[in-house]
Amino acid sequence: MNIQNYMVLEIPSKSQNEAFARVVVAAFASQLDPTIEEIADIKTSVSEAVTNAIIHGYENSDGIVYIKCSMGEDDIQIEVTDEGKGIEDIEQARQPLYTSKPELERSGMGFTVMETFMDEVEVYSTKGKGTTVVMRKRFTSLKNNKG
Amino acid sequence: MDISSRISGNTLICYIRGELDHHTANEIREYIDYNLENNPVKNLIIDMSELSFMDSSGIGVLIGRYKKVTALGGKTAVVNENKQISKVLEVSGIYDIIFSFPSIQQALNEL
Question: Could you confirm whether A94 is annotated as catalytic?
């Protein structure tokens, strides 16, 4: 990625910041003139990653969620990091319908949504240290517009 | 987020406006459960005409309500969801168990 622009956002792990985070990232991504659907994909994926950080990373206790976005010429990379408990088994966590918190009526579809809505999703996690989710998406509408 | 409801026959119709995410899920869950338990209803229709955003937290809410409604011998439907929400519902496979209709009237006729 040839980085043209970037932004960093740091928010406390409060659920009311989920909406704020996804709107900020969507506003940043809008510089690349994506379609409404592409913006919706970004908003949904950021919402999933930030929610995971708050519920699973910090287990609803106090912590900081870091969001870093880098923009290339027609693509965006979004990193969502928490310094929470980490994921014991990443492969299991990524399975559709798997949730470590069924008592909270979580659907277990967070990673599946991210993987469906973004082009690439990478998960890095260390037990006791935290988790970083890296998501990338290329905006195909740009190419179409340029012909 | 704002939620209200009305009853038509044995069906509870809920109108959710705004956004359904982890932050708003609990209030929606409690509101619907209270109204399912305290009214002579068995079916549930959720009007999503004015719901602008939903993530997988909404899937958890829908599956939980589906289980309650099924236990009452009823059916669950969503009405007029937007494209973003429809994509989340599609990915989760929820259309296999929850019906989708373009209007409340149509949902009432078919449930």
Answer: no
Report CB contact under 8 Å: A55, B83.
Answer: no
Number of domains making up chain A: 1
Q: Which residues contact B45 (CB under 8 A, 6 or more apart)?
A: B11, B12, B13, B14, B76, B77, B78, B79, B104, B107, B108, B111
Query: A76 in a domain, yes or no?
Result: yes
Residue contact B83–A18, C-beta within 8 A: no
A17 catalytic? Reply is no
pLDDT tens digit string along B48-68?
Answer: 999 999 999 999 999 999 999
> Helix, strand or coil for residue A62?
coil
The answer to whether residue A72 is domain-embedded is: yes
What b/e readout covers A42-55, taking b as 16+ CB neighbours within 10 angstroms? bbbbbbbbbbbbbb
Active site residue A52: yes
pLDDT digits over A90-142, tens only? 999 999 888 998 888 888 999 999 999 999 999 999 999 999 999 999 998 65
List chain B domain ranges: 2-110
Residue A99: give the domain boundaries. Answer: 5-141
Nearest to A15 among B22, B84, B92 (CB): B22
Residue A146 falls within a domain, yes or no? no
Residue A74 lies in a domain: yes
Q: Tell me the CATH number for domain B2-110.
A: 3.30.750.24
